[in-house]
């Protein structure tokens, strides 16, 4: 991790069930400020990170200078899985974030309990490819919001720590398209913008129909 400082925890926390799930003995929490680079593409892998509070984005810089965000991670989630010994992506804090580490054992393996998480990440990555490649802008955003609801415990209020630009880079949309899509969902009474970082879902069933995914409650 590039830098750390003593900062207050952010408001973006995991559901209690996720926070209760641990894989190793307690470790010191590294306190990182927003925009801190955790690791870079091309660096050696071998360490996983668990988010105690805050949020992280995973992205790759393309040859033409464009950025493709491939994942977001939130409190209670573990990230940093790699198939090889070199990092394929960058990881960066979105907001004030606290991280602990999960190291390999003496045999060069991670705890067996992490296999389920690795498989879930693989499935989420496959679903993300389908969303980016085939659906309309409003459907992409609806899938994104339903996924956030599911990962934040099924509540009607959704915390959105990332910027509109981050969302666009994740969904393959411009920032203008992200803003227009949010405005459309708002005008149709499906959601309410409580702030730049918080959305209230007013019509869960309509949002889930747009996303073609069942509502999590």
Which features does this protein show?
217 residues; alpha+beta; Jelly Rolls; Arc Repressor Mutant, subunit A; 2 domains; 11 strands; 24% strand; globular; disordered N terminus
Largest sheet, in brief, is: 4 strands, antiparallel
Distance between the termini: 36 Å
The CATH class of the largest domain is identified as: Mainly Beta
Whole-number count of domains: 2
Report on the architecture of this protein:
Helices cover 32% and strands 24% of the residues. The chain is an alpha+beta fold and 217 residues long. It folds into two domains: 16-113, Jelly Rolls (Sandwich), CATH 2.60.120.10; 133-211, Arc Repressor Mutant, subunit A. The strands form three sheets. It has a four-stranded antiparallel β-sheet with strand order 1-8-3-6, with no helix packed on it. A four-stranded antiparallel β-sheet has the order 2-7-4-5. A hairpin with a 2-residue loop joins strand 10 and strand 11 (198-201). Helix 3 crosses helix 6 (204-211). The longest helix has 21 residues, at 114-134. It is globular and about 55 Å long. It starts with 15 loop residues before the first helix and ends in a 6-residue tail after the last helix. Mean pLDDT is 82; it is low at 3-25.
């Amino acid at each position: 991790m590039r830098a750390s400082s003593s900062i207050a925890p952010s408001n973006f926390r995991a559901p209690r069930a996720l926070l209760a799930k641990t894989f190793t003995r307690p470790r010191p929490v590294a306190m990182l400020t927003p925009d801190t680079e955790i690791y870079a593409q091309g660096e050696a892998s071998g360490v996983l990170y668990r988010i105690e509070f805050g949020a992280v984005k995973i992205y790759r810089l393309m040859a033409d200078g464009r950025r493709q965000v491939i994942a977001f991670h939130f409190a209670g989630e573990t990230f940093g899985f790699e198939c090889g010994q070199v990092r394929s992506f960058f990881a960066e804090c979105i907001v004030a974030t606290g991280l602990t580490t999960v190291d390999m054992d003496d045999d060069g393996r991670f705890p067996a309990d992490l296999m389920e998480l690795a498989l879930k990440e693989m499935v989420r990555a496959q679903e993300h490819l389908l969303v980016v490649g085939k659906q309309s802008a409003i459907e992409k955003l609806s899938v994104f919001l339903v996924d956030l609801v599911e990962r934040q415990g099924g509540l009607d209020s959704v915390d959105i720590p990332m910027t509109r630009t981050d969302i666009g880079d994740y969904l393959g949309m411009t920032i203008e398209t992200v803003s227009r899509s949010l405005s459309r969902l708002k005008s149709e009474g499906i959601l309410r913008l409580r702030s730049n970082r918080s959305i209230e879902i007013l019509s869960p069933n309509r949002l889930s129909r747009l996303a073609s995914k069942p509502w999590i409650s």
